[in-house]
Amino acid sequence: MDCIKLGIQGYIVKPPNPDEITLKILSYYKKVDPEKATNAKLEIARIDDNPQPQTPAESFTKEESEYIEEFKMILKGKVVNDTHRKLLKKLAEKLKLSDERISDLENAVLGSNQQK
Question: What torsion, rounded to 10 degrees, do the Cα atoms 45, 22, 40, 73 define?
């Protein structure tokens, strides 16, 4: 209800796309406070232009590094869906990586992404 009082209208389909949410928020800011909208756009551009810290490659095997690179490519789309999970699972099986190791690798990548 508070959103309606603030003049926010529309909907976002599930699963939500972070870029779509950002655009919706920015369009609201543009109506209410154009300066905030401009500042927010500049901050988003700064974050997007900042390269992600790299996980040290020397601490991973060739197979682990291959899995990490594939996972990072999928993360660029911001969403890891069921199809992505199936592809990653097949790759992990091919590379002979355990579920526990996959979890460790993904957490290492996600942790380095959160530090930016």
Answer: -20
Query: To 10 degrees, the CA torsion angle through 31, 36, 41, 45?
Result: -170
Other beta carbons less than 10 A from residue 64's beta carbon: 20
pTM above 0.85, yes or no: no
- CA-to-CA distance for 31 and 25, rounded, in angstroms? 10
Q: pLDDT tens digits for 41-75?
A: 777 766 665 555 444 544 788 999 999 999 988 88
- Residue 107: which of 71, 73, 66 has the closest Cα? 71
Whether the CB-CB separation of 47 and 115 falls below 8 Å is answered with: no
Cα dihedral 81, 83, 87, 93 sign: positive
